[in-house]
From TrEMBL:
It comes from Ferruginivarius sediminum. This is Shikimate kinase. The gene is aroK. Binds 1 Mg(2+) ion per subunit. ATP binds at residues 21-26, 127. Monomer. Belongs to the shikimate kinase family.
Length: 206
């Protein structure tokens, strides 16, 4: 077993899933740094592909349009060499997106309790699903719906407050254990990963 996480070679992209505020972006950046790989935030990639903010995408295309675009962007990112990817909280809930992540990546659920999520999301209001609403009520409902699905991730790590670097190290070790136990190597080849925008879609360009 390598002494240091910088010696770990990850065979697949590590995809962080979990609710808003779980720490996917914050921990993902540190995890990528400690593994010496690229970090991408799927939400930021979606905004750059669409040339709009997530809130604007919701307004223009609705949540369903957002989810389809999100799936295509994630499919494209999963064609890149192994890296660390933070996903938006709803990405893993979409069956097609989840199946693709399961086949091409190593999924890690950053599990967090309600108090922690409420505390962490109270600082900023850029999240369309929370804007102007009671965060505890919304997040509590989302937890009920989403936790059973997030539990399908390959690896589960409890998110807690504390130095993000230590949390990232914990994730790296849990992933390393999973890779050793499962014996997985590179990403599974998927003939049609659904990353192409259908020609029939007249509304979206990405
Ligand atoms: N281990 C930690 N200790 C303390 N604060 C943390 C920790 N991890 C994340 N945070 C803080 O919690 C807030 C939410 O974290 P972050 O933005 O990474 O969550 P997220 O899962 O990416 O959320 P979203 O799905 O909305 O993008 C940020 O302000 C971040 O700095
Ligand atoms: O939890 C969710 O469904 C979302 C989380 C955000 O990261 C964004 O991806 C979007 O606001 C949807
Ligand atoms: Mg984030």
């Amino acid at each position: 077993m390598p002494e240091s996480t910088s010696e770990i070679k990850v065979p697949r992209t590590i995809v962080l899933v979990g609710l808003m505020g779980a720490g996917k972006t914050c921990i993902g950046k540190r995890l990528a740094a400690c593994l010496g790989t690229e970090f991408v935030d799927a939400d930021a990639e979606i905004e750059s592909a669409a040339g709009m903010s997530i809130s604007e995408i919701f307004e223009v295309h609705g949540e369903s349009g957002f989810r389809q675009g999100e799936r295509r962007v994630i499919a494209r990112l999963l064609r890149r060499p192994p890296h660390v990817m933070a996903t938006g909280g709803g990405a893993f809930m979409n069956e097609k997106t989840r199946e693709l992540i399961k086949r091409r990546a190593i999924s890690v659920w950053l599990r967090a309790d309600l108090d922690l999520l409420v505390r962490r999301t109270s600082r900023r209001s850029h999240r369309p699903l929370l804007r102007g609403r009671d965060h505890r009520e919304v997040l509590g409902k989302l937890m009920e719906e989403r936790h059973p699905v997030y539990a399908k991730a390959d690896v589960v790590v409890d998110s807690a407050d504390g130095p993000p670097e230590a949390m990232a190290e914990q994730v790296a070790r849990a992933v390393m254990d999973y890779v050793r136990r499962s014996g997985i190597d590179g990403p599974e080849e998927v003939a049609d990963d659904g990353c192409i925008l259908p020609e029939s879609d007249k509304e979206m360009t990405w």
